[in-house]
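Changelog note: in this version the structure field was regenerated for every chain. One regenerated record is shown below for reference.
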Amino acid sequence: MLRFAGFTGAPILSALAPFIILPLITRVVGPEGWANFATGQSIGILGMVVVLFGWGIAGPVRVARSHSDVERSLILRESIRSRLLTSTIAVPTAALATALISGPAFRIESILIAVAMTLGGLTPAWFCIGQGNPRALMLFDAAPKLAASLLALPIVALSGQVVWYPLLLLAFTLPAVALHARRTYRHDDEHRTAARGAVAILRTLAPTAAIDATGNAYGATAIPIATAGLSAGDASAFASADRVYRIGIMAVIAFGNAFQAWVLEPAATDRRTRHVIALVAHAALGLVGGAAIALLGPWATAVLFGPAVAAEPMSCALFGLAFFFLSTATPLIRNLLIPEHRYRTVLGATITAAVVGLTTMIAGSSIASAPIIALGVAASEGAALLVLAVPAVRVFRAEATHAPRPVPSVNPPGEPTS
């Protein structure tokens, strides 16, 4: 229970940190600037996925099943090597994409927040999750974001310069990454010899990176698509609904982090029971959270971001439905399919979801309909759940009759591309 509280509290604080400053930012930048700023955030999420390149999916499983500090240190060393390489591609790409999609209002600030969030892919959060260390998760991931938001609040309020928020976010988060690496590394000769090159690491991570990238293709593109096709006012209202949905997703991630480390730990002898608890908890969270987004979303966004950019009821209802589908599907992926190397199944589900979601969202953008764009988000998550359900049930039944599997490599033997 203490672990669950720690893994729930840290990600929620991490997710709430921007909401300390975002209500002020919406009032400083106005409806046109808010759509652009939210676009920068969404593109930054996509950039973060590129930087992570699958570590957020495969990394926690490797760390959770490792047996020594030296082995965990080697995993972290490999991840930093590969993520520094991917960041050289992701950062300029995110900046350019934001500059092209966003309008002239607060464009520089939008580009900077995209860059800051892209570099968030260097976070050690996934490592702390696999390690079962909520204290480190709080110290090196949640606390820097919270500090940046708290310090930016009076500075932005007094100066009216939104640029301070992304700059402070970078100033607090990057040193935390470096400090965590310094505390975790083990500097022995055998360890240094065992570390692989960045390109080799990325090659083995390609299956999980494809899953992550495809999933975020429909998960983080809704706002850029809305910004491109809707009026500034409608796009800002849609962005407000999406922001509430995103903070809800942090609760799903918190549940997923806590339950993944608990369900997959090598010493577990009651894994089937743990799976059931995780599945029921995620479904219940989906019901409660989805209803809250649908019913309270318009009111909450009016209070947080101002009546001028409050979310529409229909968009909130559809985002609430998407939240239920996403929460229910999360333990199927993280606790059942990925640990059993069912990468092809998960990739197939995310491709299906991306095709369904992007097609619907682009259609909604072409006719300037915010509800249809929101329907695309719900349809994508629902399609993923449908594809994942049957294979996950089969894995669950198989686990009841088999002993826990040995520690896997990132590239499972015999399954180089699955």
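Spot check on this record: Residues 2-399 form one domain. The two ends are 35 Å apart (CA to CA).
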